[in-house]
Each structure stands twice: as C-alpha cells, then as structure tokens.
From TrEMBL:
Gene3D superfamilies: 3.90.1200.10. SUPFAM superfamilies: Protein kinase-like (PK-like). Coiled coil: none annotated. Residues 106-167 form the Aminoglycoside phosphotransferase domain. Pfam families: APH. Residues 271-291 are annotated as: Disordered. This is Phosphotransferase.
C-alpha cells in the first residue's frame, strides 16, 4: 500500500502510516470525530515505537484513477457529497481552540476542519456508496466552500478534455456539480462563488507545488516534471472559459433560480490569497492512499 508520497503498511485490521509535525492535530481531530459518533473516518489506536500511527483499515474500494464505473456512478457522487457534509458538521465544534499545529494554513474564515483533499482516491466505497474518508494529513481549519470546491473539481469532475482523470462534457460535468451541491446542501451564495473558488483552489495548489519543489522536495519536483501543474492550469482555463455553463446548472436548474430561496449550508466566501493547496495526488503513478 502507498499513501500519497508516503509508505503505509497494512497490519491485520489496521494500517500503519508515517507521522509528522502535524500528526498531534490530526489525532485530536480523529478522536473528536469518534466522540461525535462520526463513523466515516478511521479510528486512531495510537503510535508505534518507530513513529507510525495505527489506524483502522476501512474495507472497500478506493477510487483510484482511472475511475471505475462504480466510483463514477451517480450514487457515489451523491453519497460523497453527503459524507463530506456530515464530516464538516461533525467538526464545527472542534474549530475553536484548535487553530494551529496543522500541516498547512487554509483560507479564512475557519468554519470547519477541512479535509483539504476530498477526492475519490481518499474515499472508500462499499459498492457504489462512499462510506469512509482516509488520509487526514492535510486537514486544517477553513471555510466549507474551500473543501466543497476541490471535491466538486474531483468528483464532478470539472476537468479539461486533456486531463485523463476526468470525463464528460462541460454540460455533464456541470450537472454533476449541481447534484453534488444539492446533496451537500450548499446555499446560493456558495454556488455563486463555486467556480471562482475552484480556480482559486487550483491556483493555490500549483503555487504550493512550485514552492515545495523550489525548497528541494523531490516529490514535488517529480510532479512538476510529469506536468501536473500544466494539467491544473489547463483545468483552470477550461473553467474560466465556461462560466455560463456551470452557472446555468448551479443556479438555474430546470428553470428554477436557486437564489430565489431555499435553505442550505451557508458557505462563506473564501478570503483570497491566504490558502495553499493540498499535496497533489499522482494519477499517473498509481499511488493510492493509506487507510
């Protein structure tokens, strides 16, 4: 098993993963989720003498690229949105007093604890239903919309035709984005800002990759050499060229204007310039996350 750029080990019904300076913050979050009765995250059992965290192994299929029919299904899309909403709701009471110690900063305001990499490769499915979330290393306090934006980018997905991890026409992607927002319960303000937030999120990710590569981190240099930053930039341009397509689906579905009313989770607008991206996942390498 591999998790991102880190080796992980399956040991019976548990997984052993490397720890880092951010691990105490993540471990506190996992314990909080367990106390809240949130069953979609692995239970933490402790840390080994050689510094590996011990977590539950969540049985099921992880959404590796290229996505299977099950992972690309409507039920997977809907259940992914519902699980993200449940996760966010479970973290609301944990934000205050836990603002520091995470791997990376995120944009303000700190509404929930973001997963920061909520994608098929960090989710576990039972058939076509998403039942678990894994790899919380990049978690940090931030606005709901920052997480929703990246989740829509990965699950709709809102990718350009040249990105091998995506599928569908712009209209089909926009329709799936609408379904995700509906199942999450995103309000009209969040939907209005969604496309801009996706592009901001991807821009932050590209900047983060280059910063870490310039600091000498081999994994990020490899990502850039493989052209991952180019793919993200192509996806940004793809979205910026088609705002009307996504607005039509997100705000005017079936002739109804979402802005006319209806309850939803309030998603504050992201304050630009304060966030960084999560560690990029290597679709080409076949590396999968630890559970």
């Amino acid at each position: 098993m591999r998790g991102g750029v880190n080796e992980v080990r399956r040991v019976g019904s548990t997984v052993h993963r490397p720890t880092g300076p951010w691990s105490p913050a993540v471990h506190g979050l996992l314990r909080h989720l367990e106390r809240q009765g949130f069953g979609g995250a692995p239970r933490l059992y402790g840390v080994t003498d050689d510094g590996m965290e011990i977590l539950d192994f969540i049985p099921g299929q992880v959404g590796e690229y290229p996505l299977t029919t099950e992972v690309a299904s409507s039920e997977a899309l809907e259940s992914a949105a519902e699980l993200l909403a449940a996760y966010h709701d479970a973290t609301v009471g944990y934000v205050t007093g836990h603002e520091t110690g995470w791997m990376m900063p995120a944009p303000a305001p700190a509404e929930v604890i973001l997963h920061n990499d909520y994608a098929p490769y960090n989710c576990v499915l039972d058939g076509t239903r998403v039942v678990g979330i894994i790899d919380f290393d990049t978690a940090a306090p931030g606005p709901r919309l920052w997480d929703v934006a990246y989740a829509v980018y990965r699950w709709a997905p809102t990718t350009a035709p040249g990105n091998g991890s995506g599928f569908g026409t712009a209209e089909e992607q926009a329709a799936r984005a609408r379904v995700f927002c509906d199942r999450y319960g995103l309000d009209a303000a969040g939907r209005s800002a969604l496309v801009d937030t996706i592009t901001a999120r991807l821009t932050a990710l590209v900047d983060f990759m280059h910063t870490r590569a310039a600091a000498g981190e081999a994994a990020f240099r490899c990502h850039i050499e493989e052209g991952h930053d180019r793919l993200y930039r192509d996806d940004i341009a793809y979205l910026e060229e088609r705002p009307a397509v996504f607005e039509a689906a997100l705000l005017h579905w079936g002739g109804q204007d979402v802005r006319a009313g209806g309850a939803g989770r309030t998603a504050a607008r992201v304050r630009a310039g304060q966030g960084v991206g999560a560690v990029p996942h290597s679709e080409e390498s076949g590396d999968g996350p630890g559970r």
